[in-house]
Each structure stands twice: as C-alpha cells, then as structure tokens.
C-alpha cells in the first residue's frame, strides 16, 4: 500500500493533538536541531516545510498543537527511511530524482520571477496597456435562447405584441440565463460569438432583434443600455498583468538556460510505448 507523506503526517498529527510544543528562550533559526536520528539532523526548517505540506485543515491548527505531531512524523519518517539501507527501489529513486529536479527548476524560475517583476515593472506594464487607451463601449443585454427558428419567431411575435421580455425569458429560454430573465450583464466587443455581437451592435437601447442563429441555437436579443468604460484601475487588472509578465519571464529564462547548456539527444530508437511498461523500473 502506498502511504503518501501527507497521509503519514496527517495520521501522526491526529495522534499528537493533545501534546504541547516545547517552550524555549533560545534564538531559533531554520538550522536549529530538534532531533538527530541515526546521525541525521532534523531541524526547525524541516518542521516548517513539513507543516507547509499538510492538508489545509491541519495547517489551520495552532502551532503548539501541531508541533509534536510534526516532530513524530519526521523522526519516524527518517528512521523508516534509514531502515531501507541500500534497498531503495529503482522506481523510488527515479521518483526522487524527478522531484528534486522539479523543485530546483521551480526555485530557479521563482527567483528570476521575483527579481524581474517589481512594482515598477507592473506599473509600467499597466501604463503601456492602458495609459493611451480610449474609453470602450460596453453593452448590457438580455436574450432568450431557443432550439428552433420557428420558436424564436414565435417569441419575437409575442414581444412585438407587448409581452414582457424577462417574463418570456424565464418561461421559454433554454439557456442558463433564463431564470434571471435572460440577463447577460455588461460585456464589451469580443466577448460574445460574432453572430451575437453583430446583432447587439445593430440595436439601439430598448430594441429587440430578429431571431439570430449561433452555435448555441436561436436567440432573440434585447439591448438594454450602453455605456463608455474607462481603463480599469491597476488593482483590478494587477493579477492578469502579473500572470502575463510571469509567462514572459518564464519563456525568456527557459530560452536563456536552454541556449546556454549542452544538450545531447540520444540517437537510440526508442518506441514511445515503453512509457507504459512499468516492468522496466520494477525490482
């Protein structure tokens, strides 16, 4: 049975909840040793990292409640690991190798991202994107989605005869907005499928469209109102800008690193189906 680190730690935490943490007046650092197991030191740093990998419900507990459980987990984990001696399976060693390289790669990227994406860089990206942007037009509309053109024409006739749009939408629309009277809220150009957008652009506030065919079915659309929207404040778009900047930094760093290292691809002809052959790493 495979026992994951999180499962193992969580089990020990649940057994050690009633035990309190030791109290010490010493100056503690990440390298402060809390135990030595078979010559291997367990430090406060190890304890902190172990806590960070716990399930959320355990991380929410007070540290004095968690201490003994994490301590026991690390001590027993190290004792069990050492008991293997040289008996580590190839699959386990390969997993360790992959995890180590993955963690180190993540740290390398994280350091470069942190150094590159400062508040000034984010502000500059915002200004480049929005400083000269003209106010854009936004639309507030509602629709009734129907399966056939005949149904759409019938609904349009009812609306022309004075039926209330929201009531008909709640009664007849097959779309998810139906229960809300067909309301779509505010949107700008490019957010809707082209056929729907064209119908909205052709309307004046208060007008109802003729039936419109899209990939979703047949729509009858009413344009409620329009407005001119200024550039959003930085706080609203900060996360999006940071995400874009991170992607750019990652792409540049990966290219830089790949260009600066020797990579020799094996000339061996390997059938990709070996990926599913777990017997190759079984011992």
TrEMBL record:
Residues 136-225 form the PpiC domain. Transmembrane segments: none annotated. Its EC number is 5.2.1.8. Coiled coil: none annotated. Keywords: Isomerase, Rotamase, Signal. It comes from the Bacteria. It is an enzyme of class 5 (isomerase). GO terms for molecular function: peptidyl-prolyl cis-trans isomerase activity. InterPro entries: PPIase_dom_sf, PPIase_PpiC, PPIase_PpiC_CS, PrsA_foldase, Trigger_fact/SurA_dom_sf. It catalyses: [protein]-peptidylproline (omega=180) = [protein]-peptidylproline (omega=0). It holds the Pfam family Rotamase. Residues 1-25 form the signal peptide. SUPFAM superfamilies: FKBP-like, Triger factor/SurA peptide-binding domain-like. PANTHER family: PEPTIDYL-PROLYL CIS-TRANS ISOMERASE HP_0175-RELATED, PEPTIDYLPROLYL ISOMERASE. Belongs to the PpiC/parvulin rotamase family. This is Parvulin-like PPIase. It comes from Aliiruegeria haliotis.
């Amino acid at each position: 049975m495979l026992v994951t680190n999180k499962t193992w730690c969580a089990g020990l935490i649940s057994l050690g909840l009633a035990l309190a943490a030791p109290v010490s007046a010493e100056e503690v650092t990440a390298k402060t040793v809390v135990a030595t197991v078979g010559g291997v030191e367990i430090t406060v740093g190890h304890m902190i990292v172990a806590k960070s990998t716990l399930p959320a419900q355990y991380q929410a507990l007070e540290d004095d409640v968690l201490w003994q459980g994490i301590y026991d987990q690390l001590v027993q984990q190290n004792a069990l690991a050492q008991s293997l001696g040289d008996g580590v399976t190839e699959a386990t060693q390969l997993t360790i190798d992959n995890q180590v390289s993955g963690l180190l790669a993540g740290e390398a990227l994280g350091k470069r991202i942190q150094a590159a994406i400062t508040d000034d860089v984010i502000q500059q990206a915002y200004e480049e994107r929005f400083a000269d942007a003209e106010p854009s037009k936004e639309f507030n509309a509602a629709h009734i989605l129907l399966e056939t053109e005949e149904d759409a024409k019938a609904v349009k006739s009812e609306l022309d005869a004075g039926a209330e749009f929201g009531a008909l939408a709640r009664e007849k629309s097959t779309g998810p907005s139906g229960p809300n009277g067909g309301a779509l809220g505010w949107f700008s150009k490019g957010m809707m499928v082209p056929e729907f957008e064209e119908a909205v652009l052709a309307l004046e506030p208060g007008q109802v469209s003729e039936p419109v065919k899209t990939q979703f079915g047949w729509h009858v659309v009413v344009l409620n109102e329009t407005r001119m929207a200024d550039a959003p404040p930085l706080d609203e778009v900060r996360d999006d800008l940071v995400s874009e900047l991170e992607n750019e930094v990652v792409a540049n760093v990966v290219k830089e690193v790949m260009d600066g290292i020797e990579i020799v691809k094996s000339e061996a002809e390997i059938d990709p189906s070996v990926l599913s052959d777990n017997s190759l790493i079984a011992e």
